[in-house]
Amino acid sequence: MNKTILDLWVGLFVIVGIAALLFLTLKVGSMNTVNNSDSYEVVARFENIGGLKTRAPVKSAGVVVGRVVDVRFDNEVYEAAVTLRLDKRYAFPKDTSAAIMTSGLLGEQYIGLEAGGDSVKLKDKDRILITQDAVVLENLIGQFLYGNAQEGAPK
Amino acid sequence: MLKQAIERLGNRTLQGVGRIGFAIRFFVAILLHSGTAFRRFGLTIREMYFSGVQSLIIILVSGLFVGMVLGLQGYETLQTYGSEDALGILVAMSLVRELGPVVAALLFASRAGSAITAEIGLMKATEQLSAMEMMAVDPIARVVAPRFWAGVISMPLLAALFSAMGIFGGYLVGVQLIGVDEGSFWSQMQSAVDFEQDILNGVIKSVVFGIAITTIALFEGYDAPPTAEGVSGATTRTVVTSSLAVLALDFVLTAFMFRGLS
To answer: Which terms does the record give in the GO molecular function aspect (chain A) (predicted)?
Structure first.
């Protein structure tokens, strides 16, 4: 076969292959791993984290602002210590509250941040003081049944 | 009787270990003699045409159909839970993480690996390799190494094309045919597929598979008895061994890459 035609085909093959890789990178995946350099970490303690896992998103007003990087059990206060890595572009007031929420009824769990009114911002290694635990479906059903039983009790 | 059986077992084991050792030395020799493959890159480009470009059709068509089947089957299952919006995640994840690298590697082994073995085996049977040695041309540097590097370069490109084509097939069936919402198909896919975790690991897998397949194919060809049966047996062994190697390596790589991830 003619050498230039061969070169042309191989060149086309390489271009199409790299285009496919780029398509996978840009259109299918996203570089949503927050880098170490432009992020800061804060810790939040919860009594119950439900099914929260590392790499779960941290959202504020529905926008992803960071990720959960570590979930540990703190043996001193018997609570879960969750480390959040937040993007440096977003600064939150010191009295921001963190809540564990569920997207949809059975969806994945994420941490929702609600900004407070403090003028001092959260810094690296700070702790979020106001937290709200995950809603455990069984407890909720239990409460509902208990409430109904009380309502139905003879007066 | 028993003594004979044990002797046969011992003989088999020794031969097997010997072959593995020979294959590893062969692999090291390829790496050591790779200079020519890069200095005279035309040789490698020629082999990329035969193993890469000519595998394009089978890779693209199979990728499209695998993606379309994933779209149909995934929709059927997800619909039961009312979460057909996650179809994009299912199609993209399964293709980028597993099916893309593995199926592309299996196709590559049967399409290009067998051809490499047959070619090298015949070159040996017709004493072309010995002729080269007589002319002080190193057959490993001139014949084997360019084919090795061509396979190693082609494999990740083919796997990426397979995945991209499969996602397109899933999009065709899921969005165009069934009517899953286009926005949620792409956006859920984007938020779930991570560059490092999924795409980069898929590329690493396909590079490893490329190394394994081409090494096995080249070794079987180089080691084949110089007869018609010898070459045909070696070609069969290439397809069988490299397919098994791909599947086994896939398990090992997956265990390392995705262990401990939720």
So the answer is: phospholipid binding; phospholipid transporter activity
Q: Which of B81, B193, B200, B201 to mutate to test the interface with A (most CBs of A within 10 A)?
A: B193
The residues spanned by each domain of chain A are: 1-31, 39-138
Instruction: Assess A105–B contact: CB distance below 8 Å, yes or no.
Output: no
CB–CB contact A29 B198 (8 Å): yes
pTM (2 decimals)? 0.76
Query: Number of structural domains, chain B?
Result: 1
Among B245, B192, B247, B193, residue whose Cα is nearest residue B214: B245
**Residue B8 resides in a domain:** no
Closest residue, chain B, to A12 (C-alpha): B53
pLDDT in tens, B126-185: 999 889 989 988 888 888 999 999 999 999 999 999 999 999 999 999 989 988 888 888
Query: What is the enclosing helix (H) or strand (E) of A109?
Result: strand A109-114
Specify whether the CB–CB gap between A44 and A131 falls below 8 A.
yes
In 3D space, the residue among B249, B189, B182, B260 whose CA is nearest the CA of residue B213 turns out to be B249
CB contact under 8 A, A28 and B194: no
**Which residue out of B153, B157, B206 would a mutagenesis test of the A interface target, given it has the greatest number of A Cβ atoms within 10 Å?**
B157
d(CA B150, CA B139): 16
Cross-chain Cβ contact A25/B195 below 8 Å = yes
- Are the C-beta atoms of A118 and A95 separated by less than 8 Å? yes
Between CA B47 and CA B43 the distance in angstroms is: 7
Q: What is the CA radius of gyration of chain A?
A: 24
> From the CB of residue A38, how many other CB atoms can be counted at a distance below 10 Å?
9
How does pLDDT run across B206-245, given as a tens digit for each residue?
A: 999 999 999 999 999 998 998 989 999 999 999 999 999 9
- Residue B246 in contact with residue B145, Cβ under 8 Å? no
Give the structural domain span for B86: 46-258
Instruction: Sort out which chain A residues have CB atoms less than 8 A from B205's CB and list them.
Output: none
Contact between B189 and A25 using a beta-carbon 8 Å cutoff: no
Q: How far is B1 from chain A (nearest CA, A)?
A: 58
User: 């790589």: which residue's tokens?
Assistant: B253
Nearest to B194 among A20, A29, A106 (CB): A29
